Every structure is written in C-alpha cells, then in structure tokens.
Amino acid sequence: MAFGAWPIAGISTRDVNETDSRATIAAALDHGVNFLDTAYCYGRAGESERLIGEVLAARRRDDVVLATKGGVHFPPVGHQVQDARPETLRRQCEESLRRLRVEAVELYYLHAPDARVPVAESAGAIADLMAAGKVRAAGASNCTLEQLEEFHRTCPVAAVQLPYNMLQRDIERRTVPWCLTRGIAVTAYWPLMKGLLAGRIDSPAALASDDSRRTYPMYQGEEFDRNRALVRRLQAVADARGCTVAQLVVNWTLDQPGITSVLCGARRPWQIAETAGAMGWRLADVEKQSIAEALAERGVAAAKRVFE
Question: What is the C-alpha separation between 124 and 128, in angstroms, rounded?
C-alpha cells in the first residue's frame, strides 16, 4: 500500500493543517507504509512535497520509496495547468528534489499527457533525468494504452498509475494485461472511490454543497442507491472478518491480478492507520466469492470509459 499525499496539499481537501499532515506522514511510516506518492502540483507552492521532505529529514532515507510526478502545476490563482514540455519536466523535477530534500527519487511519473506535446518528447525528458541519476525509474500516469506504448518505446516504463476500484475496472481489459506481459507495475488510485467504498457516506446530502463529489454520477440518484446497497453487502463480509469496509476493499484491490500497489490518501493519522490495516492478510475463498456475488449483483458502474 502507498500513501497518497494529495489530501495534504490542501487544494481540494477541507480542514487541512500542517501539524496533522506531518503526523499523518509519520503515521504512514510507523504503520508499515514505506511507499509515498506525491507530485509537483500537490499544492500551489509544493506543500505536499515540502511536508514529506520535512518528515523524512528525521528518518532513514533508504527505508522509504519516493514517487513524485511532473507535467502539471497549479498557478497561484486558478485551475491546474498541463505543461509536459521537456524543459518543464526537468525544471519541476529539480524543484521537487529540493522540496523533498533528496538527491533522487525512486519513481518519477509523467503526471498526465499534454495534448500539445508528443508523449515521446515527455518520455525523453524523463529518460534524461534517469541518465543524470535524479530518477531511478520512469512512470506514466493517466495515460491511455496507446500513450503508454508511445512512452515505453522512448523510455522503459516501470510503473503506471491509473484509477481503479471495485466500480471502475476498465483497465482490466487491455492495460493490465499489457503491463503484466512486460513486468510493469500498476499503481491504483481511488481504491475507495473518493470515500464512497469506505462505508461512511450514507447520503449525498451529507456532502457539503460545494463538494465536487456531488457531480459524480456514482454519488447521484439510483447509482448512489445501488452503490450503498453494495457497501452494505461488503459491510457484512467485513464484520464477519473483523475489519472495516475500507480495509476489506483495499485488501481486495491489492489482491487483483496485476495490481502492484494501491494508493490511499489521508489527512489525519487515524485514516492512514486504518487503511494500513489492509496489509498483511489474505481474503479467504469464501469471502472472495461473497464479494464477487455482491459485485455481480451491483452490475457495471456508470463510469465514463476512458482508460481501457
């Protein structure tokens, strides 16, 4: 399991403060999560990377696997900007290393393809960073299979990062098999579908009026009702196991063929402590069968099929 450091960036997450964020990073490490995933754009001024750097300054560097990303940034005011030109990736990587207080990162992703820049050019920049010893392995995030193939022809891909969860399984059809045949890691984000599969959201009305999740089809009308019915089925399996729904769902995700690691975000220590409890055990066959039956009854999620 990996710690996803987007929530501590404070851009779209409410009630974030640096004291709790530092404590959350430390709690992740204390609970056996040694893979930290951040990005240049996690914070308008690099808050996520900076906080990780501060916590790691008091830890053994060799005990931690660091991943960050380049090619996207937030201006001081306004929405995110994509810029995956080679010169931008090189500059952002240098700044990320300074924020993280390290000489190199284990994994550096192209955060997202830039429609104005050929993927091969962005991949070439990351290959240059590897040659310079600043990056140990290259990754690609939010790419279609065709874009991954283009990237891989220029710079060998070690890992891909894509959304994947019980309700969004499109990458199982083409991308995961492609990665499996090439020994490429698959890191899944949104394993709990932004909290929907954690079992704590009883109604969309409980979300703040400006919460972006209200715009997601999965959080609306009949789709939400069907998803809540699925969560109730999962709750029964979790209760019998003696774990939380979130732990059950993350464990199931880790167990899927080709899924190498699962990103779990948190902004409080108790949140990462809970999801870290998904590691170190395996679902029994009868539990897997119960989950499979619940998913079959739920049917295909009404998610836009982008990554396939």
Answer: 6
How many structural domains compose the chain? Answer: 1
What is the DSSP code string of 14-35? Answer: SS--HHHHHHHHHHHHHTT--E
Residues with catalytic function: 42
Three-class secondary structure assignment of 228-246 = HHHHHHHHHHHHHHCCCHH
Question: Is 223 domain-assigned?
Answer: no
160 lies in some domain:
yes
> Which CATH number characterizes residue 171's domain?
3.20.20.100
0.90 surpassed by pTM:
yes
121-161 tens-digit pLDDT: 999 999 999 999 999 999 999 999 999 999 999 999 999 99
pLDDT at 301: 42
Residue 151: which region, alpha, beta or left (left: phi > 0; alpha: psi -120 to 50)? Answer: alpha
Asked, for residue 37, whether it belongs to a domain, the answer is: yes
What digits encode the pLDDT tens for the residues 210-251? Answer: 777 777 778 888 888 999 999 999 999 999 999 999 999 999
293 in a domain, yes or no? no
179's tokens: 């990665």
CA 33-38-41 angle, 5° bins: 165
Residue 103 to residue 267: CA distance in whole angstroms: 26
Nearest partner of 136 among 104, 172, 96, 163, judged by Cα: 104
Domain span including residue 119: 2-198+245-282
Looking up tokens 């050929």 gives 118
Provide the phi-psi class of 160: left if phi over 0, else alpha when psi is between -120 and 50, else beta. Answer: beta
Rounded Cα–Cα distance for residues 89 and 72 (Å): 9
